Every structure is written in C-alpha cells, then in structure tokens.
Amino acid sequence: MEIPYTVEARPDTGLYNGKLGIWLFLASEVMLFGALFSTYVLLRTGDPNWVTEPMSVPLATLNTMILITSSVTVVLSWASLRLRDFAKFRLYFALTFLLAAGFMVVKAIEYSTEFSHGLYPWTNNYMAVYFTLTGLHGLHVLGGMVVIAYLIGPGAKMWKSEPARFTNRIETTGLYWHFVDLVWIFLFPSLYLL
Amino acid sequence: MSPIEQHPDEAPDLTEEAHEQGHAADEHHHEESFIRKWIFSVDHKVIGIQYGITGLLFLLFGFTLMVIMRWQLAHPGAPVPFIGGLLGQANAPGGIVLPEFYNQLGAMHGTIMVFLGVVPLAVGAFGNYVVPLQIGAPDMAFPRLNMMSYWVYFIGGVVMLTSFFVPGGAANSGWTSYPPLSTVVATQGQTWWLIGMVCLITSSLLGSVNFITTIFQLRAKGMTWMRLPVFVWTQLVTAFLLLLAFPPLEAAGIFQLMDRVAGTSFFSPAGLVVDGRIIEIAGGGTALLWQHLFWFLAHPEVYVLVLPAMGIVAEVIANNTRKPLWGYRSIVFSAVFIGFMSFVVWAHHMFLTGMGTVMNAFFQTTTMIISIPSVIILTALLMSLWGASIRFNTPMLFALAFLPMFGIGGLTGLPLGLSPADIHLHDTYYVIGHFHYVVAPGTIFALFAGIYYWFPKVTGRRLNETLGKIHFFFSLIFINGVFGPMFLQGLAGVSRRLWDGGTTYSHAQGVLHWNAFMSYSAFLLFAAQLPFIFNFFWSIFKGVRVGANPWQATTLEWVATTSPPLGHGNFATVPVVYHGPYEYSVPGRGDDFLPQNVAAQEG
Amino acid sequence: MGGHSPEDIKKETRTYILVFVALAALTVVTVGISYLDLNTGAAVTLAMIIAVAKGSLVALFFMHLISEEKLIYAVLLLTVFFFAVLMFMPAENYLDDVGQRFTMEGVGHPEGGGH
Fold this sequence. Notes:
CATH class of chain B: Mainly Alpha
Order of helices and strands of chain B: HHHHHHHHHEEHHHHHHEHHHEH
Distance between the termini of chain B: 36 Å
CATH superfamily of chain A: Cytochrome c oxidase, subunit III, four-helix bundle
Number of domains of chain B: 1
CATH superfamily of chain B: Cytochrome c oxidase-like, subunit I domain
Oligomer: heterotrimer
CATH topology of chain B: Cytochrome C Oxidase, Chain A
CATH architecture of chain A: Up-down Bundle
C-alpha cells in the first residue's frame, strides 16, 4: 500500500504531505532564529558597555540583493516546471545555486576581513552574536545548496518518472529557500544597520 | 500473505520454483537484505521496536547510575560493592565515589532518563508503532525521515555514553547545565553533552514533523478528529511541543558551545571571578539568558514526558473498564490547552533569580492555570472507573496506579509553583520528589502499562501475568519508598545535588536517616525489575500465543490487523471508521465491544 | 497539485518580478535611512517596519501565503504567538529586577573600536 497524498492534496487539508511537512519544519526554524534574535535583543539592551564594530554595509547590501534575486530565480524555476519547461527550470535552479555560492563567497570575504582586523567571536558580544547568527544562517544556505545540487543532478531523474512529485519537491525546496532569504532580511538591518 | 504466514505450522517450501513463483506473483515484494529490513528499515513498526529496545536499555543504564548515587548517599565514603572496581580510578578510587563523579552521575542520570530513555520510549517507540495503526495508515508520512530520526538519536546516545570516557569525565553541571559552572569550570564532557543534545534535538524535530503530518494527512476514511483515540491526540499535542519548544534549546546549546569552544561571552558577565581571579573574557553576557532559553524548552518537555503517558493510561482504562471514557471531549480539550499553556509557564523554574514581583506573579498565575487541565484529565480518567467492570490485569494495574501517583506528583507541584513557597523549597529534595513522582510512578508506570498492553500486538504473544503482577506490586511499594521521604527531606531544607546527602548541614540532621531507607528502596526497586526483564525476553520466544485482539479492544490497531501487523502496509484491507474509539458495552449488542471499523447494526 | 493554466502562471511570474523590484527598492531605502542620524527608537522602528514589509512580500508572494490553506495559517499563527513570547519575555525580565545592575569599571572591556 502506497502512502497517500504524497503528490495530490488531501481534500480536507488541501495539502500534499511534503508541503505540510516543510511548513512545520519552517515553523521550528522560526523558533530557532527567534531564540537567536531574542538573545541579541536581551544582550544588547542589557549591556551598558555594548559596542558595535564597523561592518561592510556595501558587501552586506550586495548579499541582500543576491539572496533576493535567488528567491526570484527559485520561484521562477518552479513556475517553469509547472509550464513543463525543464530546460528553463534547470537554468533558473542552477542560477539559484550560483547566487547562493556567491553569497557564501561574499561572506567568506567578510569573515576573513574581520579576522584580519582582529575581530573574532571572542572579541566582544557584538562579534559573538554576529558570527553565530550569520554562521548559522550560512550553514542553512549551505544546506540549501546541497539539496539544490542534488535535485539538479541525480535527483532530476524523477522528472521523467514522476513529474508531479518532482515539481512538489522543487516547491518545498523553494519554500525553504525563501525562508533563508527571509531570515537574512531581518539579519541584515539588525546586524549591519542598527 | 506468504505461504509461511498462511500455514505457520507447516515446514516452508524452499524450492527454487516456489521462490520464483512467489516473486512472479507479487513483483512489489522483493527480498530485502537483513540490513534494509532490520537495521536501516523505513517501516514505522521496526523503527518503533528499535526506539523501544534502545530506550529501555538507556532507562536501565540511567537507573544504574542512580543506584550508584544512592549507595553513596546511604553510605557516604564507603566503597561501592560489586561494581566499585569497574568505575575507574579517576572516578572512584578504591570504589569510593568522588564528588566530581557523583556530579557526573547526577547530570547524566537526568539527561539519559529524560532524553535517551523516556521520550524515545513514549514518542519514538509507542508513538511510532501505534499511531499509524490507530489511525488506519500504511506508515508514517515520511518513512525515510523516520529512519533518520532514529539513527540521529542513536548517534546522540553514543556521544553521550562516550563522554564518560573522555578526560575529566562526563558532564557534571546537572542536566540543566547552568553557566557559568558549565561554561567556565566544566571539563570536556560538557562539550560532548552539548553535541549529543544537538543530535537528540535534531532527531526530535524531524520526528515531530513526521507525527504531525501523519496525523493530519493519513487518517483513514471516517477517522474524524473526535473519533481519534486519546493516545493519538496526546501524541499530536506532544509533537507540537517538540516542534516549537526545542529550537530555543538548540540555539542555547550553540551559544554554550560557542562560549566553551570559541571563548564568547553569551552567558558570562564581565568581571566573572573563578578561583580567585577575574577570567579574561569580553563579558557582557548573562547566565539568566541560558536559563530562559533552557526552561523555554524544558518546561514543555515535562509535558512531552507526561502527555503520551496519559494517552496510554486512557487507552488501557477504556479497554479494561469495558465502557466509554468519561469526558472524552474534556480530555482532548484539556490536552490541547495544556500544550498551549506549557509555553508560558517556564520561569517558575526561575523564581529565585531576582526577576521581580511582576514577572514572578505572571508565571505563578499561568502555572496555577495550567494545573487545571491536568486535574480535568485525571478526574475524567477517575470518573471512567465509576460503574465499570474493571479487569485487573497487569496493564490495568499500572494504569490505575498512575492516577494516584501522578496525583501526588501534581499536588506537590503546587507549592513549587507558588513563588513564596518556592523560596523555601527551590533546589531541595522536595523538587526531586515532585518531579520523580510524575515521571517515575507516573510516566514510567504508564509506559509499563503500554508495554504489557501492546506486547501482544507487536509479538503475537502475551507477557506472563504472574510475573507482571509481581513486577507491579513490588515496583509500586519500593518506588514510593524511594521518593516519598524526599518530601520530608526537602521540607527540612536538604539541598539537591549534594554528594554526601546533607551530612554536613545541621538542618539536615533530623532527616538524614531517610537516606539509607530511600537507597535500599531503590536497590529493591531495581531488583523488582528483574522479573520484568526476564518476562520480556522469555515471552518473545516462549510466551503464550494470542490472536489479533486478545484484549477485546475497539481501536484500529487491534481490530483491523494481525499480530504482528502485516509487514508492508499494515492492513490487508484499508479500514473505514464508523464511530468513536471507545464503544464498549453498547446496548443491544452481543459482544461488549464494537470495533471502530464495524458499523453499528440496527436492533 | 493545483491545476493552474499557463496564463495564470505567466501572471504569477509578472507578480514575482514586481515583488523583486519592490524588495530591491526597499533595500535601498533601508540602507539610505541608516545613514541618517536618527535616535535609537526611530532607527529601530523604521528598520523593523521595512524588514517586516520585505519579509511579508517574500512570505505572501514567493511563498504563496496569500492563497494558502487554513491549516498552514493555523500552524503559523501558533508559531507567531510563541515567537512573540520568546522575543519579548527574556528582555522584559529586566523590567522590575530586584536590586541594582552592577557593572565593573575597567574590566572586560572589549578590544577593537567602538562607534
């Protein structure tokens, strides 16, 4: 007996399993990043000796634009699949991967610049929060890149055998990816602009 | 069904021809290797059994750690008999438990019992095995994710056990791991603890996504919300607690790892003095941050510990009273309300941190409110006994004992939840008595009820009733012997986590004699588990065989499948549900139970 | 999965591009505002308003929350509530602290420049 509702939606919930699953996972991620932001608020408002360090706003703005663009490319890749245009899907999906890689490169440049200025996680709590929050966010970007690489590579075989199920996988991946973008939308002003 | 399942007593025909015919007949059923079938299985029943065996082993190990602690408390400074030599020279030279080792035992006992024992049993084992069967589903929604959840839990367990053998030993800052003790003073074992916790939290998160999706999406036709067994409702609420409450602890664990490994100051204020010197950190952090993040999880965690237990007790009581549960809707709404409230009571663990009266009053109020649904559930279960034809089999005995035991645990929680009383009782043995009553004769008794109840479904054989009753009576007596006197010690002011059990404190002198009493009760409690352990393994091979529904139950796992259930897909025909889960003693029917998948007949 | 016609999907694509332009514009705005010399309260409030606006665009249109199922809304509502509790409770911890905050001079001062 196959597991029902992996592809078609269950009538009373209106959802297929993977969509409910990914939203539940994202709910837990909201709580995870919520705890991180809450910590930042508590530490910053509670410490009269709080210092912030000079950060590269231009680089971070570039990263913000990179992620926003990657959100567009990932949703366009899903739209392409629904129009049954596999080539377009591949193009947009690959672009998403490249943009994500670009984000990580910029982050690597930022980190090494900070290290070269003697700014480490143990320097002060601002740097501690900065490295922990952007580090964890970066790990989520990497995780997304692994999934995207799989789905564009070996995972793409499913388009031939079960196209609807494959399209759903792209949709759930996209939802995860938008969340990664969403977290950065809050991280960026909190860490760099305020 | 394969020829073996159809004719169990005949010698199987293993000729090539028969084998090939079997293959041709059903091309979906291919020979699975031993590894795919039993080690890296994606079948919820196998995974449930894996969680069950692993969880029980960890429970036994955690119990053993406590037995060593209780020896030290009864006879401070005396060598531990029999196994003293095995503890290692660094931990117990000459078999005498060192204070540092005692602290390791304490921290790891708590961690192992909660995160490696009870939750994996209650959720991973019982939840995984029973929920898909009770809702009429072929498996969990995400079988491979389920398999990953188990193995990540397993790895977390290995990490935790390994921590005993690293230099400095295991974590020793309590299961609560408060900084700065855990960040500045604690040895390498604490880092292992944090890594282990990250694994366990990840496992729980993946599992909770699976449970919620399964319960929403895979209910059989006719299985509406108000026809769900109470056990499934409690698992659903528990899954939401795990999903939303665990991530802040994951964040806190990452912060503590950063403090320990990267020298950050998330939890370290400036000017922290250790060993007479101000340590060189940037400062600006606060130990209270850890406490908020830790308890934000750890309070919902205790409802994770108790809700599945209440679910099991509800199932066993309904079945053994031969009448519908009293107040099904109240139980369901109370369980949901408990889940919701459990997120806003956490700082009752922090009454003594100097929060101030507004915060104290807020959390005291929410804590009092959350006691109400617990009482409603307990009352409903008690009312279910009124006018019942009670069958006093072993699962029912454990389920019945749960009621007063959890009652004591709950009632003793009230003075702790009232901040003025908590000033006297915080961090004393009273707290240890309170939470052990809810978890040990509470939840663990309910888990035993579940094992005795569902063993026939899993194995097709029943556990021996005589051994079961011996297990029950002696466990009940001795468990009260271990935890009852703790209230007396706590009221006298004896602090928890003392290696010598309070011998150096004048205010403890009057209650010190209870230490030996409690310890010998604990040793006898350990002995009382031996009939169970023997019964468990003996009955797997030699237990009396029973049919698919030996308890004459109404829920789908008993009435729609075999014992054990079918290997793939669970049900020969997909069940359809016609009514609620506890239609016992329906007037006008011959049998005293009406299965959920049988439509009621006229007249 | 929803049977949307190619025309509907093309219309959605236009929406995505519009949202992208809006997000880019809001990014420029938020960076621009950060160069003004505002007091803390105003700076935080404005930055958060813009971030919430950007986040909402991503959630509503890229993540299709604007036309999602009730169950998803319910899960997210629950999450947002607990998120709010988590965000505000620990900081409010300080509101009526007993005793005085103690800071030590000349101790634990971080390296690197302040601003």
